[in-house]
Amino acid sequence: MSVSKSTIKKVTTHQLQEMKNRGEKIAMLTAYDYSMARILDAAGIDVLLVGDSASNVMAGNETTLPITLDQMIYHASGVVKAVGRAFVIVDIPFGSYQGNSSEALRSAIRIMKESGAHGVKVEGGKEIQESVSRILSAGVPVMGHLGLTPQSIFKFGTYTVRAKEDAEASKLVEDAKVLEDCGCFAIVLEKIPSHLAKIVAEKISVPIIGIGAGPHVDGQVLVMQDMLGITQEFKPRFLRTYANLNSVVTDAVTNYISDVKTSEFPNEKESY
Ligand code: KIV
Questions:
Q1: 119 three-state secondary structure
Q2: pLDDT by residue (tens digit) across 7-50?
Q3: Which residue lies with its CA nearest to atom 5 of ligand 1?
Q4: Alpha-carbon gap, residue 56 to 63, rounded angstroms
Q5: Can you tell me which atom of ligand 1 is nearest the CA of 121?
Q6: Is this model's pTM higher than 0.85 or not?
Q7: Mutate to test the pocket of ligand 1, among 28, 30, 94, 226 (most ligand atoms within 8 A of CB)
Q8: Closest Cα partner for 94 from 53, 138, 136?
């Protein structure tokens, strides 16, 4: 029997693993607020990520670095309230887990307690191994994130494809193994060569979710504003836009302005 919207009441880490085992792809999107999360959940999305990309698309920052733990919890609690089926993961933001494993655990527990989320995501491999293990030992599901890790953008210098060279590719495979051995339930691979992502997805037993990592992985994630065509300026090769909400909203608002200015709105029926 295939796992689909109609057969799963609530998505769990166990079901995500079963999906990988039987070759059913996992569909994941970001969400940052109640209203949008309701639509995505009702449409049947498997996983919602309250990404620290909220820093970019919700707060207008250039990078993900400025967003705080309190702000992530605020976004996440709206998303969690909206969801009946999807598994909700929250990014632990920059500066809330890199210090030491106690800080990491404290941040993860705050997210779980205050937002009601189902798991957390962290960026990095071996260097955050102790923190990942500590969070997992508290019973909190952890998703890893390797490849282009936006919290390290000032170390990389650019948002170009990662792990093209052998040394970086080998480190990425080792890091994926470390995260799997720690007990991560899934790993995001961002912006790496397709052939490398395929190797990781075959070598690692837990679900591998790609963004700009090609088709040979266990699932895909996109930033919701990008795939709905709300953001206009961000057009990486890996992005497929499924709607042009920017023009839909622009048309609606233009019509509204015109109706207000010409006293077309409200009419008799819309008045008391
Ligand atoms: O913050 C985010 O949106 C992410 C995805 C790009 C995976 O981490």
A1: strand
A2: 668 999 999 999 999 999 999 999 999 999 999 999 999 999 99
A3: 51
A4: 6
A5: 8
A6: yes
A7: 30
A8: 53
